[in-house]
Amino acid sequence: MSIAETFRPSDEFRRRVEHVLIHVGVWSFVVVLAFPIVWMVITAIKQDADLYPEDAIPFWFKHSPTLANFDVLFNHTEFVVWVVNTVEVSVLVVLITLVVAVPAGYSLARLQFPGSTTLSIVIFLTYLVPSSLLFIPLSQVVVQLGLQDSRWSLVVVYPTFTIPFCVWLMSGFFKTVPREIEEAARTDGCSRLGAAIRVVLPVSTPGILSLIIFAFTLSMQEFIYVLTFVSSSAEKTVTLGVTTDLVRGDVYYWGSLMAGALLVGIPVAIVYNFFLDHFVAGLTGGAVK
């Protein structure tokens, strides 16, 4: 027996090493992802006397935990109003995006007309234009519509960056749906519209869910446009309200800031967790049904 064969690791040893390495990689990933949430929780329930001293230990409590930061958030700011505004704007943007992006994506995928491929690429490139270049011309649109300092201006503005990407997304997803099932429905008497509604849309659920999640979260976390078009506290969304009302000059209300981020971020994380498989399937083009 050669020396190489003597020191060759057994299959059982290799499996154990692979098992350990997989666990190390997974838990390292979990720690990195969980760290911001743990940091927010600890900061949100710490007293000010435990946050600002130079000798304060980030993960240690010298004083008992408190809910005072949440009290400041709910009773001394308009946090609830900001949340309601954010949900209203995001839901309306999602509805507008659905109404426009789904038919447009289907048309680009199924209707062959000159320049359809080029148009699809141009629509996607529109999404890549930086928002910092668009808010100046869009401000003129908002002024002409009389929506200055109103959250409804965001309902007009946000679709300019949700629709282009979602049209491109749905176009790519509809192309993965076999034409045969649509042709079979039309053979059975359905019109093109009827086949699209009864056959294509049901198997395109992952793509539609991806569209909804993308448009909702992008509208919910956007900052530049709301900072430009909204100034009164009663019209602000969460992203602007928390950062402007809880940062006053060089004073940062870290406890309340983290409490607001926690209350808004956790529900979104839960929604992503429930629809993660559909979201990934939609972004990767879906599966052939």
Structure characterization notes:
- The protein has helices at residues 3-6, 11-44, 68-75, 79-110, 116-127, 131-144, 152-157, 159-176, 179-187, 192-203, 205-221, 224-229, 238-245, 254-274, 276-283; strands spanning 247-248, 251-252.
- With 289 residues, it is mainly α.
- The longest helix is centred in the N-terminal third of the chain and has 34 residues, at 11-44.
- The relative contact order is 0.14.
- α9 packs across α10.
- The protein folds into 2 domains: 3-68, no CATH class; 77-283, MetI-like (MetI-like fold).
Which helices and strands appear, and what pairs or packs with what?
Blueprint (H helix, E strand, L loop, with lengths): L2 H4 L4 H34 L23 H8 L3 H32 L5 H12 L3 H14 L7 H6 L1 H18 L2 H9 L4 H12 L1 H17 L2 H6 L8 H8 L1 E2 L2 E2 L1 H21 L1 H8 L6
Antiparallel strand pairs: 1-2
Helix pairs in contact: 2-14, 3-14, 4-8, 4-11, 4-13, 5-8, 8-11, 9-10, 11-15
CATH homolog superfamily of the largest domain: MetI-like
| CATH architecture type of the largest domain | Orthogonal Bundle
Poorly predicted runs of 5 or more residues: none
Radius of gyration: 25 Å
Find the structural class using helix and strand composition.
mainly alpha
Helix proportion: over 70%
Shape: flat
Tell me the count of domains: 2
- Percent of residues in beta strands: under 5%
> What is the string of helix and strand elements?
HHHHHHHHHHHHHEEHH
What's the helix count?
15
Read across the widest sheet, the strand sequence of neighbours is 1-2
- The CATH top-level class label of the largest domain: Mainly Alpha
- Give the terminus-to-terminus CA distance: 55 Å
Please count the beta strands (DSSP E, at least 2 residues each): 2
Q: Give the mean pLDDT.
A: 81
**CATH topology category name of the largest domain:** MetI-like fold
* Biggest sheet architecture: 2 strands, antiparallel
